[in-house]
Amino acid sequence: MPNIYVQDLPKNDANFAALTPLLYLERSALVYPERVAIIHGALRQTWSQTYARCRQLASALQQHGIGKGDTVAVMLPNTPPMVEAHFGIPMSGAVLNTLNTRLDAEALAFMLDHGEAKAVIVDPEFAAVMSRALAMRQSTHPVLVIDTEDALYAGTVQRIGSQTYDDFVATGDAQFAWQLPDDEWDAISLNYTSGTTGNPKGVVYHHRGAALNAISNILEWDMPKHAVYLWTLPMFHCNGWCFPWTVAARAGVNVCLRRVDPKAIFDAIRAHKVTHHCGAPIVLSAMIAAPDALKQGITHQVKSMVAGAAPPAAMIEGMEQLGFDLTHVYGLTEIYGPASVCVKHEAWDALDVGERARLNARQGVNYHLQRNVSVMDAMTMQPVPADGETMGEIMFRGNITMKGYLKNPKATQEAFAGGWFHTGDLAVMYPDGYVKIKDRSKDIIISGGENISSIEVEDVLYRHPAVMAAAVVAKPDPKWGETPCAFIELKAGAQVTAEDIVAHCKAHLAGFKVPKAVVFGELPKTSTGKIQKYELRKVAGSSDAIDV
C-alpha cells in the first residue's frame, strides 16, 4: 500500500525554506530596528543599520563578481566588520573564511590558496603579515584586498588594499535583495584547524548546522532576548562558536573587544552591563587571578561559558567565588565549536563546592539540536559501558557536524568512519549519561606499563595556589619508558620551587603519577587560549618516547 502521507504533499515555497542564520538578522532588524546591535568604542550601531550594511556588503561583493561558491577571507579582530562579515559575505552567496590572526604568513598563504579566496578583508593590525602572505601565494589568480579602519587601533596604519572597507560597503545597495541558499546544505563558512602536523585542514560548515547550533546555544544557556554579549572569544574560532548568529537571533548586543585582558573585560562588564561571555580556560584563569580592585562594582548576574579544554575543578570553583554562573561546553572545529554541554541539576546545589566542581567539569551530554554524543570503542564501534571507568573515544553524529574537509576526501572519510564523527578524545561514560574526557589519545603517558592521564595530573597542579596554567606531557625515561613532565605558568608575583610542586602532587596522586620533571615559564597558547601541547612535546622530547 502506498504511503498516504507522501501522496500530493510536496515541499513548496509556502511550506519549506532552507534553514540559515541569515534570517535571524533580517528578523531582528524588522522587529527591533532601533535596538543597539553593536558597541565598539563610541560606536552604537542598531540592528536596522547592521542589516543595511550587511546587505551593502553582499551587494558590493556581487558587483565585483563574487558570489556562490567563492571564498571571502577576513583577517579581523572582534570588531564591527567581523560581525558584519558573518552575514554580508554569505548573503552574497559566498563562503566566509575567518583567518586566525595569530598565524604566520606561510600558514596564511596556504589558506588563501587552498580556500581559493577571491577577496580578503584586513584589519590594520595584521596588514604587515597579510602583505607577506599575499606575496607568498602560489596561486596566480587575483585577490581583492580591502582595508578596514578602526579608531581604537593605536598602531601604525599600513594600507595594502585597493580601497577601505567603509568605501567598499558604501558602493553596495542597502536594499539588496539577497537570496536564501538554494540548499541549506550549501557552505556558509570555512574554518581551518590548527594544523599541529602538516598543513591545516579546511572544515566546511553548512547553513543548516550554523542555524541549528546558533539556536542550541540559546537553549543550553537559557539566553534571553536582548542579552549583552561580550566578545572575549575570537570570532575567527569556529565562527565564535556560532555566537554572531546566536546574538542576532536574540536581538542582543555585540560588545566588541579588540584585545582581551582582565581590565578590559571587567571594565566592559561594568560599563555595558554585560550578561554573557565565552572563553577558553586561560581567559577565565586570568579573570580569577586579576587584582581584586578590577573586579569591584559588578552587581548584576553574568553568565560565562567555557570550552577548549577540560576546566580544572579549581577554575570552576574560582568562577563561583566571583559570582559568575559557569556553563561548561565541549566541542571541536568540526562540530561548530561546542556541541555538548554539562547540564547542571538543582540537586547539585546542595552539594559542597568541590563536589559541584567535579560534576561540572564533565563534558556532559549532546546539545538539543545535535543528534548524539557517545563514548565508543573505535574498533567495534559499540558504546562502552556507562560505568565511569571504561575508556573509549568521544564521537558525535547529527546536524551540528561539518560537511567535511575541503579538498580532502580521505580525511573526511576517516573522520566519519562508521557513521560517527571521531574526535580523537578519550573519555568515559558515567551512569547518568554524562561524558568525561580522560585524555587525548596521543596524550596518554605510559610509565612502567601503567597508564597516566595527563588531565588528572593537570587537575591536581591547578589546585596549587601559585599555578596559573599547567600542562603535562610525556618525557622519555630510561627506566620507566615515559614519565610525566609538568610545564607550569605561575600567577603574577608567585614564587614556588619544583620541589614544592612535586610535594603538592604527592599529596594527591599515586607515586607513579607524580611529575618527575617540572619546568616553569609562559606556556605556548593558541589565539583562543588553548595550550599548545605539541610545542611542549617537542621541548620534552615526547616523540622519542612515543611513536606518534
Briefly characterize the structure.
It is built from 17 helices and 27 strands.
In one word, what is the shape?
Answer: globular
- Mean pLDDT rating: 92
Strand content: 15-25%
Range of helix content: 25-40%
The rounded Rg comes to 24 Å
Q: What is the annotated CATH architecture of the largest domain?
A: 3-Layer(aba) Sandwich
Number of structural units classed as domains: 3
Strand order of the largest sheet: 2-1-11-10-12-13-14-15-16
- Topology-level CATH name of the largest domain: Rossmann fold
Query: Superfamily at the CATH H level of the largest domain?
Result: ANL, N-terminal domain
Number of beta strands: 27
> Distance between termini?
57 Å
Largest sheet: 9 strands, mixed
**Helix tally?**
17
Task: Tell me what the structure shows.
- The protein is 30% helix and 24% strand.
- Strands 2-1-11-10-12-13-14-15-16 form a 9-stranded mixed β-sheet, sandwiched between helices. The protein has an 8-stranded mixed β-sheet with strand order 7-6-5-3-4-8-9-20, with helices on both faces.
- The chain folds into 3 domains: 46-179, Rossmann fold; 214-440, ANL, N-terminal domain (Rossmann fold), CATH 3.40.50; 444-544, ANL, C-terminal domain (GMP Synthetase, Chain A, domain 3, 2-Layer Sandwich).
- It is of the alpha/beta class and 548 residues long.
- It is built from 17 helices and 27 strands.
- The model has no long low-confidence stretch (mean pLDDT 92).
